[in-house]
Amino acid sequence: MIEMNQLQSGIVEAASKVRASNPMAGSITNSVTIDFVANAQLAVGGSAAMVYLPDEGECLVAAGGAVYINMGTLLPVYEETLPRTAAAAHAAGKPWVLDPVGIGIGSLRTKLLRGFKPYKPAIVRGNASEIIALAGLWDLEGDASELSRARGVDTTDTVAAARDAAVALARYTGGAVAVSGESDLVTDGSTVAYSTGGSALMGKVTGFGCSLGGVAAVYAAQADPFTATLAAVAHYNVAGTRAAATADAPASFKVAFIDELYRATPDDIANNPLRIEEA
């Protein structure tokens, strides 16, 4: 199991590299949250690009350091766009991030998510029910009946309940899995880390999970999947804690949060409370 000081050093290095190099991490993301995803990516030091079309998804893979696929609001064209983009990233050896939002809603979403399995995303980010459902859909933990436990974009399970599913997914992909919750879980299949902080107001504004996926893609362009995911999650927890100290309502909190993403230093991010254990 990796040592805590190694993790913290890796986070500092990743955050410093992102600020210095301004990596592009293109996104095919939820139309409800495109603005938030792009602005969060810019605030942490990355560069954003949002597309819909199949050939443009492939272009994002070629042009950027990583790519983000969010399943939130599917359009008919995505039946071609998403598999081609994931396949291009896999073939190019470039990291891609999957957010299986809404898993279990509709046949197209299920078909697309099942089809992603051989392309092994570098990072999977979701709530507890989404992670349990995806592991079941991919026959890694539980079974496909777990799909019924995901309720739209909300979770009906705890982070602790998703631990085994997250570990199974990470071991299969060889990457990292993040489970968002009151205490966020991040695993690479051998180490399980818990990052705390943030604010309850994150649940009162749409897009915090989606934008975290986009920020994870920015970090994935500069670091290994586990370090990238830890850095993104810690960055969010630092910013959320600080924003909550100055804002007490959803709209002002979102503005303060983006400001705090921008202000957080690599040391701030690395020193966010973190606990680790063996998987």
Topology:
Layout: H1 4-21, E1 25-28, H2 34-44, H3 54-63, E2 66-70, H4 78-92, E3 96-99, H5 107-115, E4 123-127, H6 128-137, H7 163-173, E5 176-180, E6 184-187, E7 191-195, H8 208-220, H9 225-244, H10 250-263, H11 266-270, E8 274-278
Parallel strand pairs: 1-2, 2-3, 3-4, 4-5
Antiparallel strand pairs: 5-6, 6-7, 7-8
Protein described:
The protein has eleven helices and eight strands. Helix 2 (34-44) packs parallel to helix 10 (250-263) and helix 6 crosses helix 7 (163-173). It has one domain (4-271): UDP-N-acetylmuramoyl-L-alanine:D-glutamate ligase. It is 49% helix and 13% strand. The N and C termini lie close together (9 Å). With 279 residues, it is α/β, with parallel strands linked by helices.
Q: What is the second-level CATH architecture?
A: 3-Layer(aba) Sandwich
Helix run count: 11
The rounded distance between the terminal residues' Cα atoms is 9 Å
What is the C-alpha radius of gyration, as a whole number of Å? 17 Å
**Largest sheet, described in full?**
8 strands, mixed
Indicate the mean pLDDT: 94
Backbone structural class: alpha/beta
Please list the strands of the largest sheet in the order they lie side by side.
1-2-3-4-5-6-7-8
The helix content is 40-55%
* CATH class descriptor name: Alpha Beta
Per the principal axes of the C-alpha atoms, what is the gross shape?
A: globular
Give the topology string: H per helix, E per strand.
HEHHEHEHEHHEEEHHHHE
